[in-house]
Design brief:
The complex is a heterodimer of chains A (336) and B (327). The radius of gyration of chain A is 20 Å and the shape is globular. The longest helix of chain A is centred in the N-terminal third of the chain and has 26 residues, at 12-37. In chain A, 41% of the residues lie in helices and 9% in strands. Chain A has 336 residues and is of the alpha/beta class. The termini of chain A are far apart. Chain A has a 5-stranded parallel beta sheet, with helices on both faces. The model of chain A is unreliable at 332-336 (pLDDT under 50). With 327 residues, chain B is of the alpha/beta class. Chain B has 2 domains: 3-183, Rossmann fold; 197-326, Rossmann fold (3-Layer(aba) Sandwich), CATH 3.40.50. Chain B has helices at 6-20, 44-48, 60-72, 91-97, 101-104, 134-137, 151-163, 176-179, 213-226, 244-254, 269-280, 304-310, 314-326; strands spanning 3-5, 24-28, 53-55, 76-80, 114-119, 144-146, 168-173, 181-183, 197-200, 205-209, 231-235, 238-240, 257-264, 290-294. In chain B, the strands form 3 sheets. Chain B has a 7-stranded mixed beta sheet, with helices on both faces. Chain B has a 5-stranded mixed beta sheet with strand order 9-11-10-13-14, sandwiched between helices. In chain B, helix 10 (244-254) packs across helix 11. The mean pLDDT of chain B is 98. The chains are: A alpha/beta (336), B alpha/beta (327).
Chain lengths: 336, 327
Amino acid sequence: MENRHKNMGLSDETVLAMYETMLLARRIDERMWLLNRSGKIPFVVSGQGQEAAQVGAAFALDRSQDYILPYYRDTGIVLAFGMTVKELMLFVFAKAEDPNSGGRQMPGHYGQKKNRIVTNSSPVTTQVPHAVGIALAAKMEKKDCISFVTFGEGSSNQGDFHEGANFAGVHKLPVILMCENNQYAISVPADKQLGSAKVSDRAIGYGMPGYRINGNDPLEVYQYVKEAADRARRGEGPTLIETMMYRLTPHTSDDDDRSYRTAEEVEKAKLEDPMITFRTYVKETGVLTDDREQQMERDIEQLINEATDYAEQAPYAKPEQALDFVYAETEQEGTR
Amino acid sequence: MPVISYIDAVTMALREEMERDSNVFILGEDIGRKGGVFKATQGLYEQFGEERVLDTPLSESAIAGVAIGAAMVGKRPVAEMQFADFIMPAVNQIISEAARIRYRSNNDWDCPVVIRAPYGGGIHGALYHSQSVEAIFANQPGLKIVMPSTPYDVKGLLKAAIRDEDPVLFFEHKKAYRSIKGEVPEADYVLPIGKADVKRKGDDITVITYGLCVHFAMQAAEKLAKDGIETEVVDLRTVYPLDQETIIESAAKTGKVLLVTEDNKEGSIISEVSAIIAENCLFDLDAPIQRLAGPEIPAMPYAPTMEKYFMMNPEKVEKAMRELAEF
């Protein structure tokens, strides 16, 4: 198999780190389903099948200064930006120590200021204008950082996508909009969601380049996001990137996808599962040896076991902590 | 002390805050070269440039959402909705996002954004240029809603809103913009958000209201005073969260309370004020709590006959005050 990453300027170590982050995201996801099905956690929203695009993109950003506005499937992105396995487990167990929300939000609603992971809500695509606002602030302050925002193809129908994209286009702001097109908005397939052939076609309306690329290939995603990031930092404005992939699991642990798609379709998509195809790549290019792989799997399992045990035993927030942080604490007495 | 108009107090507060803090910037439709459709931002584009006085696309959800994003990373945006009636596309951003950012992130993130909007009728604005929208937002913990009545309060409260660590909706009565004038110090000052202001002291009846209606109550109070009826006028100033202490104190003192709003009655700000008084002052009351409000129709019609029928005015307030005093 041809070594593609060398020509892209990516070292073996970086490519290995990409694969390891993808694998970690997948194994965490699988564990969450087990925890859900055994009654230990109430809810899972999954990112299986989307790890390649997430991790490829995250590695193309400047993880020391860029802002990310992930959506609820982006375990791969937040891991790459510094959220730990323990923190993710605290989140799904809704424990007080959860850095995303202190046990307030459903899983998947990421946010961690120290890693510039911007807090997210459930009404979809509200984060696109926020990313544009963060890019506006960066431009005003002549900072080198950019913002990176993700959303699904269904979400690209929301007004906030269009209003945000247009605003970014008008002001040539340093923001990357990445659609993770997993082909389903819960049960509704993309052809019932999009009036245009592609989400990326929408870019032209907002004066930015739009690309549809293979979201199962982290190297291709890396390449396009890197180019978009370079453009943004040069002051040339926003880019829309549509990454094509397949949602391998039901929408959430509360969904049964058998009612709207066939098992054959899912099985066929699994042949393109990036965990399989990218594994083949790293093995065949010699980036990942058998020994290293076995060690990696053992390390990840141990990490997840420890994180799960810790999170399961960690305390919940006290009931009355529900009252905290409605307003800034210094003002609370005056406003209550 | 110079006497200036209500709208000039808006401009003055914006200018002073932009001079004080380089993180303060303003954005909205037509606020740049044109200086705003009401001229609230006149001269700011010339003074601060287009980077800090941003003419946005006609796109209210983006105006709110972009401001929220910038606020989350340390800026102090002041977004203008051209009319309060046009805030509707931004409601998701204001309620689902701005109001919940601190809470949902367990105090990790915050959102010190100000959203200004002219509201209110009596200016031939019909259904979509006359509405009072405060009640829509007034059960959303995390938000603060400020509705000043005088130029003095406008300046002090808008400055406080810009310096506040949480999202503030700042509603300005558009009929007050040029019709209401008052003394405003040139010096820097802020007024406390969350505190009502007793605009007139009295022992016989209490009128609790906000915005333009404060002036109607003050005019009516003058007339009643000539007949020996002393009215206490409480200006809520912040309609959410409410200053319960001042409301309870004044209601308990006079035992007769009239609540006035230009908005529809049911589910309005004064409905909540009424509930606070009912919960806390039952044995102090000498008359049922009275509410004077707009009729239960969707919004203010255009024709002058129907507009006048809807709109609050000093005569309506005076009549209700006299009835209460005689109860």
